[in-house]
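Thread amino acids onto this structure.
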């Protein structure tokens, strides 16, 4: 259980494909796949439209791919690319990690101590597209400050940010209670920024950071920071009909509730912008003694 199974090495340039695989026959043994990071190889996760592509049991999983990235062979579906109750899933590549039509999908795991997805610790991706088939926890995303990583993460129920997420000038979209296509799911799922966590982008568009969910919960020492000139933070419900309460009590409406304390954690530059809702919003937006722009 304290051992490790490794596929490839730092010279590997050939593709490594996991197809409905269970590599660790000893429960808890670590699973590593390793390629030359400057080589043209990729790691392919193939659920074959039938089962989890890489079933890790209780193992930690660490995938380091070449410049062709970490890819999902199947379009978004009901089967995970990765599932584990191990502590972490670490993904490193200078290529892409999924694309929006073929996201790297994760099995449902409500524990913030398990299947924590950590990206870019050694090599930073150009694009990160992930999806949780239930609840998903991000343990940290380090973007490429030169290539400027674009991050787009959806989860069917809860999406937890429990670490530092930074992308250079790449945009960030974080959405709970969403399908992999970015549509509202069933009205259950909170986007949660846990204590000490942060989300930062220096993108200069008005939607540099987008936060979505059936509700949104920002912990007291968390921070959502848009540092690019004229850049913005957008707050939206998972569906356009969900109400928003800004500055009021934490459960004032069935929808997105951000108290004054939570609003104070969202910041932009002086030329930036904070947007609540969009041109499709039909749910009420209520400001109650609110100070939204910090």
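Threaded sequence (294 positions):
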């Amino acid at each position: 259980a304290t051992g490790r199974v490794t596929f490839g090495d730092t010279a590997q340039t050939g593709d490594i494909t996991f197809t409905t695989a269970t590599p660790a026959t000893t429960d808890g043994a670590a699973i590593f796949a390793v390629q030359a990071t400057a080589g043209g190889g990729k790691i392919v996760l193939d659920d074959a439209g039938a089962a989890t592509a890489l079933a890790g049991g209780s193992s930690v999983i660490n995938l380091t791919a070449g410049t062709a990235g970490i890819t999902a062979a199947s379009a978004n579906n009901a089967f995970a690319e990765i599932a584990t109750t191990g502590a972490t899933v670490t993904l490193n590549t200078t290529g892409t990690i999924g694309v929006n039509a073929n996201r790297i999908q994760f099995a449902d795991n409500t524990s913030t101590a398990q299947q924590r997805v950590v990206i870019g610790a050694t090599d930073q991706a150009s694009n990160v597209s992930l999806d949780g088939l239930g609840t998903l926890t991000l343990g940290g995303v380090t973007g490429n400050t030169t290539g400027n990583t674009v991050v787009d993460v959806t989860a069917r129920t809860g999406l937890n940010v429990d670490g530092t997420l930074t992308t250079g000038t790449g945009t960030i979209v974080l959405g709970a209670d969403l399908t992999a296509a970015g549509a509202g799911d069933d009205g259950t799922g909170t986007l949660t920024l846990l204590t000490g966590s942060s989300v930062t982008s220096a993108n200069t568009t008005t939607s540099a950071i987008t936060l979505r969910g059936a509700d949104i919960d920002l912990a007291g020492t968390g921070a959502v920071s848009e540092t690019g000139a004229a850049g913005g933070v957008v707050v939206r419900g998972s569906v356009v009909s969900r109400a928003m309460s800004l500055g009021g009590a934490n459960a004032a409406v069935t929808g997105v509730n951000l108290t004054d304390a939570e609003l104070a954690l969202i910041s932009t530059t002086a030329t930036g912008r904070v947007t609540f809702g969009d041109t499709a919003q039909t749910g009420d937006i209520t400001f109650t003694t609110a100070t939204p722009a910090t």
